[in-house]
Amino acid sequence: METLATETEVTSMPRIGDEAPKFKAVTTQGDINFPDDYKGEWVILFSHPADFTPVCTSEFITFANLESKFNKANCKLVGLSIDGLYSHIAWLRTIKDKIEFNGIKNIEVKFPLIEDISMEIAKKYGMLQPGESKTQAVRAVFFIDPKGTVRAIIYYPLSLGRNFDEIYRALIAMQTADAFNVATPADWNPGDDVIVSPAGSCGVAEERMTNTDELDCKDWFFCTKKLDKDEVLKKILKS
Ligand code: BEZ
C-alpha cells in the first residue's frame, strides 16, 4: 500500500538561520550522523524525486562530475530520495555503466545517497510538498554551514532540473560574505564588486558620500567596493 504523508507531517521544515535538524541515516557510503559528521565543513543536502528517472539521472551525473569542485570549496554533497538502498545502488551502477549526459560518462557517484523509504527525513526537511507529490520529494537544496546552521534553501518542482552553476555560485557567495563581511549583489561572481554593510548612522552616511577613495557609493545606502577574484578564491578554496 502506498504511504502518504499527512498535511501536519509535511508542514514543518527548517528555515534559514535554524539549526539543521539531526538524523541518522543509511546511505550508499555507509551510515551517517547528520549534520554532526559534517561539522567544520559546508554540506549541501539535496533531495530528488526518484531513482531511475531521467531528470534525476541528468542531475546526478552533473553533480557527481562537479563533486571535486565543491569539495575544494570545503563543501560535501549528500543526496536523498524516498527509495531504498538497493534501488540506489542499482541506479548508481546503471549511471556509471550505461548513461552519458552532456558528454559526461562512466561517472561514479561517490557522495552518500540516503535511503529514506520511511520518508522520515524528507518530512523533517519539508522535502515533501503534497501539492506537487505526496510520495516523491521535490528537488530541495539545503546549504548548511560548518556550524550546522541552515544558510540557504532552494526548491525546484519535479520537472525542473537544477542549475548547478547557481548552486556553486550561491555557496561561494555565502562563503565570501562570511570571510570578508560583505554582501553580494545580483548575479555576483568572484571578481565582481561587493556590497558593504549599510551606513548605520547619519555620520557614516555622510562620510560614505564624501570619502570616495575606497568605496563606490551610488547613494548613502548603496556602496560597493572592489574585491579581487584571486583574494576571494585564495581565502575560500583549498589549495
Ligand atoms: C525525473 O527525474 O525525470 C522526474 C521525476 C519525477 C517526476 C518527473 C520527472
Mind explaining what this structure looks like?
The protein has 239 residues and is an alpha+beta fold. The chain has seven helices and ten strands. The strands form three sheets. It has a five-stranded mixed β-sheet, covered by helices on one side. A three-stranded antiparallel β-sheet has the order 8-10-9, with no helix packed on it. A two-stranded antiparallel ribbon has the order 1-2. A hairpin with a 2-residue loop joins strand 9 (216-219) and strand 10 (222-225). Bound molecules: benzoic acid. The site of benzoic acid has 9 residues, from helix 2. Homodecamer. Pentamer of dimers that assemble into a ring structure.
Secondary-structure element pattern, one letter each: HEEEHEHEHEEHEHEEH
Rg, Cα atoms, Å = 20 Å
Q: Helices and strands: which structural class?
A: alpha+beta
> What are the bound molecules?
benzoic acid
Separate helix tally? 7
Strand count, sense and barrel status of the largest sheet are:
5 strands, mixed
DSSP, total strands: 10
Strand content of the residues, in percent? 15-25%
Poorly predicted regions are none
Helicity, in percent? 25-40%
Q: Order of strands across the widest beta sheet? A: 5-4-3-6-7
| Cα separation of the termini | 51 Å
Considering the chains and any ligands shown, give keywords for the structure.
alpha+beta, about 240 residues, binds benzoic acid, about 20% strand, 5-stranded mixed β-sheet, 3-stranded antiparallel β-sheet
In short:
The protein is α+β, with helices and mostly antiparallel strands and 239 residues long. It has helices at residues 7-11, 54-72, 85-98, 120-124, 164-180, 202-210, 229-236, and strands spanning 23-27, 30-34, 42-47, 75-81, 113-115, 139-144, 150-156, 194-195, 216-219, 222-225. The protein has a five-stranded mixed beta sheet with strand order 5-4-3-6-7, covered by helices on one side. A three-stranded antiparallel beta sheet has the order 8-10-9, with no helix packed on it.
